[in-house]
Amino acid sequence: MKNLSPLIxxxxxxxxxxxxxxxxxxxxGQIYALLYVSDRPLNADEIxxxxxxxxxxxxxxLKELESWRLVRLQHLPGDRREFFSAPEDVWMIxxxxxxxxxxxxxxxxxxxxxxxxxxxxxxxxDKFAQQRMKAMHDLIELVSSWFTDVHxxxxxxxxxxxxxxxxxxxxxxxxxxxxxxxxxxxxxT
Amino acid sequence: MKNLSPLIxxxxxxxxxxxxxxxxxxxxGQIYALLYVSDRPLNADEIxxxxxxxxxxxxxxLKELESWRLVRLQHLPGDRREFFSAPEDVWMIxxxxxxxxxxxxxxxxxxxxxxxxxxxxxxxxDKFAQQRMKAMHDLIELVSSWFTDVHxxxxxxxxxxxxxxxxxxxxxxxxxxxxxxxxxxxxxT
DNA sequence: CAGAATTTTCAGTAATTACTGAAATCACAA
DNA sequence: TTGTGATTTCAGTAATTACTGAAAATTCTG
Lengths: 189, 189
Prior knowledge:
The structure is a homodimer. Chain A is mainly alpha-helical. The first copy, chain A, contains eight helices and three strands. Chain A has helices spanning 6-21, 26-37, 44-51, 55-67, 90-118, 124-151, 155-164, 168-188; strands at residues 42-43, 72-75, 82-85. In chain A, helix 3 crosses helix 4 and helix 5 runs antiparallel to helix 6. Chains A and B meet through helix 1, helix 5, helix 6, helix 7 and helix 8 of A and helix 1, helix 5, helix 6, helix 7 and helix 8 of B. The first copy, chain A, binds a DNA duplex through residues 25-27, 43-45, 53-57, 59-60, 63, 80-82.
């Protein structure tokens, strides 16, 4: 790692490590981390130089990141090389990551579970297994469609909701009471 | 894989695959999947037999799962062997997983970011990097403490919230209006 | 306490995944 | 179109991670 300040180097190394713990290869994590903290787009040679990777490794890493929609490719005027940068908005990054993981892993899992649950089986062991799969399916489906749903919310609303934390319970109780009142009115007329 | 019905075999293989995509080794994923759909606790030999792993591999896998608090060890009367089972409550499983990942990966990342952000730097590149790290830190902290917070909610409330999905926005708006009214009253007195 | 049953450890090996350098391909300018 | 710079591909190799079998340790029983 040449020409990287200790601050940035530390960040990059940590992200490489984290990446590998979440099933993303170390190199890819490091490239992303570097782009994330860089104040200008970088080309592949600069990345290879900074992280001390081979040019081809950087090429593969960038391709991977593009497939995750985590980097933007751009051209600088008067320069034939491709420059890469990470989107600035951290919420956007978070959402993109969640969307991609959902598409790649969660959706196929749901589909597998759905198929498994509707299969006709006779064995009691299989019957039990199906119950368990159903429970897992329902949970994943609930969480996953909640995710999709809140993606639609604008960022401020999302932040507001998060900051509310557990206090959201009070709000839900309030909602319950309002509903009873409304329901009462309706049934009275 | 001996004695496993196609239904269960399929489930187990899928989970092994998913595990490895999320940074959990294939074997561990398969052992967990098997325990999850099993209608009774299994001992290590049964697992080794069913999945066709060596006994020592199963031992290591179970140790790993115990460290994630994802399996329960129990003894059957009149049997010296150790039997393992997966907790039944899928929400509990989900929460445990989230807690462990937070403890192992998110918290150390937050700590690294906090340190990086309070470091004194002069280089403009470092200053910029610090801004980015601050943004990431704040997002992770917000989401992570929201997670901790909603863990406290009982399951029904959580399900209610999830089912509400994007409609939660309406509720937040309502809350906003109530606050204004309340605030108005206060300032009037 | 001796011995049997069970579990764990760990060094060696196998399998997988990551990385490189060289060659091929591509993209553009003259 | 040809040449040059840039990027990608891919076969070979390196590094890492996973797995096994044998031995050690642990746990229980008589």
